[in-house]
Structure formats: structure tokens, C-alpha cells
Task: structure prediction
Amino acid sequence: MNAADPTLTEEIVFSSQDSIILGFDIGGTGMRAAPVDCQTGLLAGDAFRLPTPNPSDPEPIFEQIQIMIDHFSWRGAIGCGFPATVKGGVVRFLGNLSQKWIGVPILAELQRMTTSQVTVINDADSAALAEMHFGAGRKRNNDRDGTVLLITLGTSIGTAVFTDGHLLPHTEFGHIEIDGKIAERWAATVERERKGLSWEEWGRQVDRFLQKMELLLSPDLIIVGGGVSAAWEKFFPYLKLRAEVLPATMGNDAGIVGASLAAKIGFRP
Result:
């Protein structure tokens, strides 16, 4: 497998000394980090959490990341899941953090904070890597079987697409307009909570979004992640799709695990 290819169709074998990587999951409200065993997809130590600074400007977030690196006294490789489109190591498009991040060379800045290898990946792509290698998408990934759409439902909608085990990075389908309205503004989990929608009402709105995705992508499997995936029985009955639909299984650790795995395979979208 090409080290620059984000394909995870082959089983990856690591030696014991190089399988542990520190993963970061940077979110709009919280930041988590933990060492990950990339052979098993399990955390190799307790996760350390800090709140995301408000305002979420670059300098205070870099300061928090440095605190987290120091907490683990880390000297090895680092993978960072970040809620933005990062191309060529530079932040290009941003969702929930301060717009001051646009144009920031995040990879170079993080590299200056450590002498080790650093990888930065979009947070939805990061969670998707974990699900495809260790979670609900593992069989299709290993079999190189069809198109898989992964969505994360939370304060926004994150998306990732795999075809025959190959990741198409930086998809932002949560921002697609349906009937003149941006999808994540009525189908994200936060909208159900904010508007007090019933599971049926919200489930039908999620179905509306996924029906559009099915029309555009013809996925064979749709994996639904985010914290709400633990309550999948409450809204899956309202999803009327041709594709197989499964809840994500990696839980809150998906972003950390995927970021570590991205660093292990040398992910460079």
C-alpha cells in the first residue's frame, strides 16, 4: 500500500514499538487527546480533555494543544483531527471555529511544537477512517466493496465517502442546500434539541437529507455516527432508504483513533 494513499483495504501490521500514536480530536466545544494502539484501534491510555477556548482563535487553541502534548510528555508521532478543510497543510474552509483560522498553516505550526511526525486530517474523515478500519464499515473496507457514506450528526453534519476502500477527502455535504435551506441547519442533532422535535419529526428530516445523498452518490452502505448514534433505534425506523444503514460503533473515540491511524499511514490528502 502506498503510504500516501488513504486506502485502508489492506490489513496494516505494525511492530509493537511503532503502533502507539497520540491522537487529537479538536471540536467546537471540546478537545480530546489520547495515545492509540493502531493495531487494535483501542486507546492505550486515558483520554485527556480540555474545553475549546472561546473565542476559538488559533493562538489559544495551539496553547491548549501544547498543554495536551506536555500532559503526555509525548515525543512520538501525532495525528490531529481538525474541523476544517486542510489542504497542503493550510486551513481552507472552516465550520464551527473562529474564521481567523482561514489561511493558517496548521501543519507547519504543529510541526514546530514537536520534533516528531505530525499529520492533520479533517475531523469527519478522521472518524470515518476509524469506522472503516475498526468499526461498522470494516467488512466492506476489507472486501473493497462498493460506496460507503459516513455522516456524523452533532452541532453540524460531517460527511465522508469511501469507494472500494478509497477515501474521497474533504466532502462537506452537510452544507448542501435542499429546497433553499442548508441541510445541517435543520437535520443536525442540535436542531432536534433546539426545536424540541420528536424523534419521528427529526428522523424524517434526517431521511430527507439522506435521500438526497442517495440520489447523488448511490451508496451501498450509510454509517450514521455522532453521539446520537447510540439512540439509533429511536430514529432509524423513519429512514426510508435503499442502502443498508448502520450505526457507527467507535463511539466518542472515533476521531482520536482515526487521527492516529491517519498519522500511521502517512495520510496526505
Q: What stands out?
A: The longest strand covers residues 30-37. The chain has a mean pLDDT of 91.
